[in-house]
Write the structure tokens for this entry.
Amino acid sequence: MTAPDTPTPGRRPRWLLGALVAGYLLLTAAYAAATPVFEGFDGLAHYAAATFYRTERRLPELTPATVRDSYELITQPPLYHLVAGLAATGWPVEPARQLAQASVNPYFDQSLSYRQTVILPDTPAAALAPAWIARFVSMLGGLVALLCTWWLARIFFPQQVWLAAAAAAVAAFNPQFLYTAVSMTNDAWAAGGAALALAAAAYAALRADTPRGWLWVGLALGLAALTKYSTLLVAAPVGLLWLSYWRRCGWRTACAGALWASGGFLALAGWWFVRNLLLYGEIVPFDRMAEVLPTMRRALPYDLPTTLSYAPWLAASFWGVFVAVIAPGWYLDLTRWFMLLGFGGLLPALRLLRTGRVAPGLPLVYLVLLPWLAIVAASVLYWTSTVDYGEQGRLAHIGASAFGVTMAVGWAGWAPRRWQTALHGLLVVFMLALAVTGFGVLNQAFTLPTALPQPFVPERPLAAQVAGGMRIVGVAFPAGAALAPGDTLPVTIYFTTDAPIQDDFTFFLHLADAQDELLYQFDGVAGSGGHPTRQWQPGEVFADQYTLTVPPASAPGLATLSAGFYPRRDVGARQPVFTPDGQPLGDRLILAPVRIVAAPPTETDPTGPPVATWANGIQLDAATIEYDAAGAPVQATLAWRAGATLSMDYTVFVQVLDDENHILAQADFQPQQGQAPTSTWRAGDTIRDTVTWSDDVAGWARIIVGLYDAQGQRLAVRTPSTLPDAVEIAAR
């Protein structure tokens, strides 16, 4: 990392910075498209705060009445909310406010849904516009963080263009940061303000010709402080850089610089903190906040061991915890190792300090950036220990710019000098890959279920209209409608609605045995918690998947799978279910029988070819007839095999015929006395049935077997071809 003190001329830095900015804009556009507009950390509260400034045009006071407007008015300085609110001037207020209130997903607080909000059908664009404007303002804060990280790296390492690119990518392409940057929150601006103050201080300390350069540092500090109180901590690294300036220029010049910085801060932000002092007796009114907002403080703060036990979670939530949508484990492990190796590389990077030719910023990485990151980490741990719901690693993004530069330096510490440019390029690619992965996680979580093409015919069609507007149009069992205790059974249910659903209804899916004891129960939100009923799109059929399990001690037998809905607040008020012509079906819909088998089926090869095969793959492997002393048949034992998974119920018929095909005896039955209907047969299942008759069959000539459906239509026989819809199993 050798370099002179002047930047490298040429177009490459501009081209590379332009590519980073373009990448950031594309990524934030993708994240914004994937993430519903009102989702985000306290997004609705931040939006309510912005709406307050837009409508009231005054500063709030820390009172219980203000809490009812938005608790973010209590805990945050005004800058982001003021800008986001005023930027939406001209758009209608009430439709926007009503939409935000209507979009709240009440199941989120019940931990039944990972969505904080619902996407309401046919939402007017004018009602959405102010929220999108607030998101755009947030995105600009993230852009400031990217640009200032680049600036800081270029000041510290003037010739290391790709180091600056890697630092900016680590800071701004972090999926957690991108998610924050497209949410309605002041977090991105807090990171941007802190990055601006740090970069401005680095410039003033290393390059400013006069103390007046510190004026911009003070203004940047003021901007950060008006965005979020935690950014006041950036005064610590700014102070360390000021000490470096003192060493370079002497104490008189340094003191003059401090006065310029103080003046800039007071001119921009002093009025806010003086107001706090006059109204509440505190520059930062934490006591007053806790008084009107009790969740600001834990009743009993965590002790140190408990606080430190949250460290893995804090690391995960720095990279990939998008409120209740969490990135996969491999991703969180990868980012954890990325940080550990990056910090670890700072040790071998120390060898460069022994040389005489080092970039001006390398010592400051250890003397300024690392202490700043330690302060950020300590503040997050303190917040975790003292504030309810404070266990959030994203709060450390106020140090994003320092973190980006530190990671770029640390990773380069592992490589020989000649490989460092390539390594920094790989870091950019790595961060892009992480960003794309984060987009995939969010897109999968928040994309509405795919509308199935019309006309759509489910495997097992149903026609049930539920009061409230929900319709159940079908069910499918991809692996068959049978399972052994302890096994799993996938089930797909198909829903639709004819008009927007106005209320929140809880969906229930229950599997009960013959004694009506529950074997499986789901009560919650469709779409794995992601598709509340008010979000359903009229006219669209979607598939909803579940995995059933039954207790290991469940007895074999036939269970009943049923489904229905009830209002969110009243589990006892199940909604009536009707047929398409309005006939009542009760307070639930019977979806299908499910067979509980004693053990997973053991597939054994039959001793010979099957007696017969029907068109849907049902096989009769063997048929054994018992006779009385006079040679008349009295009983038949049938060994069935399912060549494919079945979804329809068929009735078996056995007929004893005379020479003129008159029926002497007949038995029509569901397999195993109704305990093994064909709709529960899976490919490879074997079913044995014994049928007897007491009719006089002395003049019998032959016995035939067949199957027919609910309409009485016989199932065609594939082989043998002797009879079209039955098979002869015995003849005189």
The mean pLDDT is 93. The first helix runs from residue 12 to 34.
